[in-house]
Amino acid sequence: MAQVSPAREIEFEGILNFRDLGGYAASGGRQVAWRRVFRSGGLWDATPADALRLRQDIGLMSVLDLRDKPEIEKNASGTATAGLSCYNVPLSTDKGNADAVQSVRDLGSTGAVYLLTMKNEAYVRRLVECLRVMAEAAHPLVFHCSAGKDRTGVLAACLLSVLGVSDSDIIMDYTLSGPYVARHIERLSRDPEAAKFLRSLPAFMHEASAESMELFLSTMERDHGSIREYLLSHGADESLFKRLERALLV
């Protein structure tokens, strides 16, 4: 009898955009292990039932939060993360700065925004640090930002790429965030300040299009050979990639 794969997208009462990165074909004929690494939107709206599921059904042991300190102070994730090993490596930009918002608008696509962030040396060093956390922390592990689309999306793309997952699977996984964006915006818009910021963003920043991730991946590969090679030139080393493979591939 053929083995049935676990559900990739996992519905919670309060948590949005939570899914398993397992099952994707990776390097050396292996695949990303199911129920070992997850990506998600913010955990702060987790209900008590959600927190129980994270522990009992998922067996979650570690959380990697990609938000900056002001975001965490505004929306703490205490219910969902109590008793777990928690790590914070902020993958943030000057998103509250009016000039920065205009620069984003001028870029014309989310993929171009992602490429710009990869030119920031401090940002890329933090990406490498995130990969170190994922290699060394106890699993299962979930990493998340706010919507689980942009910062989480770039990190997921880098992780899957260094594990040898195909561009087509990385792009497909990225687009799965699309249906959750409207619900995330609705929640954040309860805060007038957040609502004002969200309205200032160009429409493309509220999408998770295949074209954006394809642009990101193809440009990184054209300009640097691969994401793996790019990260090697920015503080990663082969031992990190081997530890990620041991931790996450079967």
What does this entry look like structurally?
There is one protein chain. Helices cover 49% and strands 7% of the residues. The chain is of the alpha/beta class. The protein has a 5-stranded mixed β-sheet with strand order 1-2-5-3-4, covered by helices on one side. Helix 6 crosses helix 13 (238-248). The longest helix is centred in the middle third of the chain and has 16 residues, at 121-136. It is globular, with a radius of gyration of 17 Å. The model has no long low-confidence stretch (mean pLDDT 93).
- Beta content comes to 5-15%
Distance between the termini: 20 Å
CATH topology: Protein-Tyrosine Phosphatase, Chain A
Q: Portion of residues in helices?
A: 40-55%
- Output the CATH class name: Alpha Beta
Given helix and strand content, the structural type is alpha/beta
Shape: globular
Query: Which regions are unreliable across 5 or more consecutive residues at pLDDT < 50?
Result: none
**What value does the average pLDDT take?**
93
Order of helices and strands: EEHEHHEHHHEHHHHHHH
Count structural domains.
Answer: 1
Looking across the biggest beta sheet, what order are the strands in?
A: 1-2-5-3-4
Question: How many extended strands?
Answer: 5
Largest sheet: 5 strands, mixed
Identify the notable features of this structure and list them briefly.
5 strands, Protein-Tyrosine Phosphatase, Chain A, 13 helices, 250 residues
